[in-house]
Amino acid sequence: DIVMTQAPLSVSVTPGESASISCRSSKSLLHSNGITYVYWYLQKPGKSPQLLIYRMSNLASGVPDRFSGSGSETDFTLKISRVEAEDVGIYYCGQLLENPYTFGAGTKLELK
Amino acid sequence: VQLVESGGGLVQPGKSLKLSCSASGFTFSSYGMHWIRQAPGKGLDWVAYISSSSGTVYADAVKGRFTISRDNAKNTLYLQLNSLKSEDTAIYYCARSQTDYWGQGVMVTVSS
Predict the structure, then answer these.
(1) What does the pLDDT look like over B17-74, one tens digit per residue?
(2) DSSP symbols for chain B
(3) 3-state helix vs strand vs coil in chain A, percent to 5
(4) Which of B54, B55, B53, B3 is nearest to B26 (CA)?
(5) Which pLDDT band holds residue A70 (cuts at 50, 70, 90)?
(6) pLDDT-derived band of residue A62, with 50, 70 and 90 as boundaries?
(7) Which of B81, B105, B106, B100 has the alpha carbon at shortest distance from B33?
(8) Rg, Å, chain B Cα set
(9) Which pLDDT score, from 0 to 100, does residue A36 have?
(10) Which residues contact A41 (CB under 8 A, 6 or more apart)?
(11) How far is residue B7's CA from residue A106's CA, in Å, rounded to a whole number?
């Protein structure tokens, strides 16, 4: 199974500042079709997860452009520019390259 | 797009339960669908996937006990849970193939 390792486990950010979350996969997520199948989600308290970034760097519909995704075949970064109060929650990375589809353990973002 | 789960509840170990996910706002028959669960206070755990052509894959932890199915005429996804264990206690979410839409989740509690 592909293991997804996130860091840090938690991050505390001053509103208006930026934050970065890292995710590493135990195997390349680059498909032969050129698409890298890593996804980023935010789960706000008491809510379902919502998709932020799909296929490594594509912004999901309705997601502010303060969010961006980047990376290589095995190392990925979610960057949040100008953090706002509504960004609080747990961020997960996940891979949809091959089953079993797997997720990172999550990174909790709090405000200072 | 809307996904609405139902059918959860409290069930004894070894018993069965059937979850439903009613889909609307998109052409259900054209999309693969996932079941993903989240144990209390834990991260995301992929359970099963069914393709638009009804091919299925399962996580090892549920293989042989759970069955994913779909009824395109009713725009509904199902998850049959048999031989339930305490470790199956979780919120169960249905999600569209690229995980761009998630339901609100339904709680399944396995306890005597």
Answers:
(1) 999 999 999 999 999 999 999 999 999 999 999 999 999 999 999 999 999 999 999 9
(2) -EEEEE--EEE-TT--EEEEEEEESS-GGGS-EEEEEE-TT--EEEEEEE-TT--EEE-TTTTTTEEEEEETTTTEEEEEE-S--GGG-EEEEEEETTS--B---EEEEE--
(3) 5, 50, 45
(4) B3
(5) very high
(6) very high
(7) B100
(8) 13
(9) 98
(10) A49, A50, A51, A52, A91, A92, A93, A94, B44, B99
(11) 28
Q: Compute the distance between CA of residue B64 and CA of residue B85 in angstroms, rounded to an integer.
A: 13
pLDDT of residue B64: 98
- Chain A positions contacting chain B at CB under 8 Å are 39, 41, 48-51, 54, 60-61, 92, 94, 96, 99-106
* Cβ separation A96–B98 shorter than 8 A: yes
Contact B72, B52 (CB under 8 A): no
Which of 25-64 (B) contact A at CB < 8 A? Answer: 34, 43-46, 49, 57, 59-60
Nearest partner of B69 among B101, B86, B38, B94, judged by Cα: B94
Arithmetic mean of pLDDT over chain A: 97
Q: Are A6 and A108 in contact (CB under 8 A)?
A: no
pLDDT (0 to 100) of residue B50? 98
For A64-88, b where at least 16 C-beta lie within 10 A, e where not — what string? eeebbbebeebebbbebeebeeebe
Nearest-angstrom CA–CA distance, A66 and A1:
32
Which amino acid appears at position B107 of this protein? Answer: M
- Residue B83 tokens, joined: 């031989």
Residue B6 contacts A where some CB pair is shorter than 8 Å:
no
